[in-house]
Amino acid sequence: MPRRPRPHDPAARGPAAVPAATDPVRPRESAPLTLLVDGAPVRGVQGQTVAGVLLADGQLSWRRTSRHGKPRGVFCGIGACFDCLVVVNGARDVRACQRRAQDGDVVERQDDPCGGGTRGGTGRSPAVSDEGPGGARG
User: Fold this and answer.
1) For burial by CB atoms within 10 Å, which of 35, 52, 104, 114 has the most?
2) Taking the chain, what is the end-to-end CA distance rounded to the nearest angstrom?
């Protein structure tokens, strides 16, 4: 006798379970968009994050570390690591993996201002000196 699927059984679900016309997660047509990235137009589609547009364009890094000048792009992809920071429409410290791209956005690479590595300086925060936080202790 054939087994009758139970409601919690994966075999009971499938493509026929939800009609395509009423599927709430069905992909919709995406409108094209264009970002201006460091002065150059980069094309994407509505719904992509800034990081998604950059990655689809073949750009794997768009920031350099302040201390050693190492390239950074998307690392975690969930907004926890801050490796994908960019400037969007003049606003600094925007996480490219979290920001939905909008047609006409102006995106610029963001380098840390504290110096170091390949650009000179100590690579340390200005609040920390050789004597530790707050300067020399008496």
Assistant:
1) 35
2) 89
